[in-house]
Specification:
The complex is a heterodimer of chains A (114) and B (109). By secondary structure, chain A is an all-beta fold. Chain A contains no helices and 11 strands. In chain A, strands 2, 4, 5, 6, 9, 10 and 11 form a 7-stranded mixed β-sheet that branches. The chains are: A mainly beta (114), B mainly beta (109).
């Protein structure tokens, strides 16, 4: 009964492949996020959806495409993977879009591109 | 220059010591300040939350915010080996969090 769950936890793939990471939250939250954490532990927001609508789209290559089929799910699809995409990707959720929201993170998906 | 600066450490202390962590920031509009703890191979979890300036205490943890200096800090008293983790500061004036780089702390038994 993990609150924010994402799969797979570990993913090793070759350059040029397309891969997806799935995320689900059972907290009843309206807002979901994708964050990227690089090798220096720096966390940076990529996307945010509120009730299935895209509200944050940071400067991310368009090879990255989020998809929210419903407000409990936010998946991340990555096309034509590059070495620089190797990182940890965290899915997260918050109750709503409001200043100072508490954000709840999943356990992370470790992506290694070889 | 990053919006939020945090010394990545690493920081190694003996059990029972006081751990002091801090972040500085440049955006004077920030009003909400948080500390997240991240264990190895896990996601960040919220540890402390402070609105505007002031102190907040929760058990062995104390968070302080000084908006005039654009400086926040976290103190961990009577540190335990289980406190070994990376601590990330985060802050915002809306719903987009800006994170520090995280400080890795090891508490030696």
């Amino acid at each position: 009964d993990t609150a924010v769950s994402q799969t797979p936890k570990y993913l090793v793939t070759q350059m040029g492949n397309d891969k997806s990471i799935k995320c689900e939250q059972n907290l009843g939250h309206d807002t979901m996020y994708w964050y990227k954490q690089d090798s220096k532990k720096f966390l940076k927001i990529m996307f945010s959806y509120n009730n299935k609508e895209l509200i944050i789209n940071e400067t991310v290559p368009n090879r990255f495409s989020p998809k929210s089929p419903d407000k409990a799910h936010l998946n991340l699809h990555i096309n034509s993977l590059e070495l620089g995409d190797s990182a940890v990707y965290f899915c997260a959720s918050s109750p709503r879009v409001a200043p100072g929201n508490t954000i709840y993170f999943g356990e992370g998906s470790w992506l290694t591109v070889v | 220059q990053k919006e939020v600066e945090q010394d990545p450490g690493p920081l190694s202390v003996p059990e029972g010591a006081i751990v002091s962590l801090n972040c500085t920031y440049s955006n004077s509009a920030f009003q909400y300040f948080m500390w997240y703890r991240q264990y190895s191979r896990k996601g960040p979890e919220l540890l402390m939350y402070t609105y505007s300036s002031g102190n907040k205490e929760d058990g062995r943890f104390t968070a302080q915010v000084d908006k005039s200096s654009k400086y926040i800090c976290l103190f961990i008293r009577d540190s335990q080996p289980s406190d070994s983790a990376t601590y990330l500061c985060a802050m915002t004036d809306d719903y987009k969090l800006s994170f520090g780089a995280g400080t890795t702390v090891t508490v030696r038994a």
